[in-house]
Amino acid sequence: MNLLSQGSGDFIMKKQKKDKFHFLQKPENFDENKKSIVFIHGASINSYFFVNQLNFFSNEFNVFAPDLPGRNKGDEKGLQSVSEYADFIIDFIEKMKLEKPHICGISMGGAIVLDILARPYENIERAVIINSGARLKVLDMVFGSVKNAFQDFKKGMVKFGVSKDFDFTKIEPDAYKACIDNPMTALADFNACNNFDLMNSLEKIEKKVLILGASEDVSTPLKYGKFLEENIKNSQFKIIEGCGHLSPMEKPVEINNAIYEFIKS
After folding, report:
1. What phi-psi label fits residue 231: left (phi over 0), alpha (psi between -120 and 50 degrees) or beta?
2. Of the candidates 201, 259, 263, 202, which has an alpha carbon nearest to the alpha carbon of residue 230?
3. 14-18 vs 21-25, strand pairing mode
4. What are phi and psi of 181, to 5 degrees?
5. Which CATH class is domain 14-264?
6. Alpha-carbon span 186 to 205, nearest angstrom
7. Which pLDDT score, from 0 to 100, does residue 6 have?
8. Domain range list for the chain
9. Could you tell me the pTM of the whole model?
10. Under 8 Å between Cβ of 114 and 202
11. pLDDT score for 19
12. pLDDT recorded at residue 2
């Protein structure tokens, strides 16, 4: 399998729609004999965030990246809780008839993965959690910025989501394409994060879990990942050096390698 260098290159996924679901997929590569991976994006972004992972894994897996509610024409806004988003992802897995997929989520997407894993839901193989935690409190200034200066907020969110020495222009087009334009959805996402708390439920998780943290992530610092590792029995924690919260875009080769080695082990 050939690893991607920095940047997305040609985006080979296609936006699909089935029932209420909008998702990125390369349909001509679908093979019912392949294992599937479902990538779940974070707050205030959409499925395009995983452009590098979708391109890379589509050669060997059936890959899907669903848009969470509130991101497409006709959607009113996002949902109000991580649990509701988890219901949505489970519904997606069942409606798409995916058998024991791997699930991978970043930030709020990681919280969604944790919520699913803590349930008595067996139709999951393994899980990857990137730059997330068992509790995701949101600063008041974030809510204020989304309400009063959403365009400025988006610019700050992506620029401060990478490490201080990284050349942001390498991912700038993809990063902004992954941002949503609906501030009401962003507010719903951040409210869902702010009310999320699975601190006392991690012992329920039985599936094997890979936890990825970024050494320069100021949004979800490494202590979040360490706490998950200490409280999820079948977990392992790996630090991706020299990157920030947007590590799947900033360090796609390292992220892809870590996920690939975990799900193939």
Report:
1. alpha
2. 202
3. antiparallel
4. -110, 0
5. alpha beta
6. 29
7. 34
8. 14-264
9. 0.94
10. yes
11. 85
12. 35
Give the pLDDT score at 59: 87
- The pair of structure tokens assigned to 200 is 């006392």
Nearest to 129 by CA among 147, 145, 116, 146: 116
pLDDT at 94: 97
What SS3 class is residue 128?
strand
Region of 242 on the Ramachandran plot (φ > 0 left; ψ -120 to 50 alpha; else beta) = left
State the burial class of residue 159 (Cβ atoms within 10 Å of its Cβ: 0-12, 13-18, 19+). middle
> Which residue matches tokens 């400025």?
152
Quick one: which of 239, 247, 204, 206 has its CA closest to 222? Answer: 239
Contact 115, 86 (CB under 8 A): yes
Residues 6+ apart with CB under 8 A from 161: 175, 219, 244, 245, 246
- Mean pLDDT split into 10-residue runs, the chain, 265 residues: 39 75 84 93 97 93 96 84 98 96 98 98 98 97 96 92 93 94 95 98 98 97 98 98 97 98 95
pLDDT (0 to 100) of residue 201: 97
Please classify residue 265 by burial: count the beta carbons closer than 10 Å to its beta carbon, then call 0-12 exposed, 13-18 middle and 19+ buried.
Answer: exposed
> Which residues, listed in sequence order, are joined to residue 213 by a DSSP beta bridge?
239
Strand runs (DSSP E) across 67-221, as ranges? Answer: 102-106, 127-130, 209-214
Q: Which of 45, 63, 46, 62 is nearest to 54 (CA)?
A: 63
189 bridge partner residues: none
pLDDT for position 15: 81
Instruction: Enter the tokens of residue 153.
Output: 């907020």
Measured between alpha carbons, how far is residue 84 from residues 81, 153, 190, 196, 211 in Å? 5, 25, 14, 11, 23
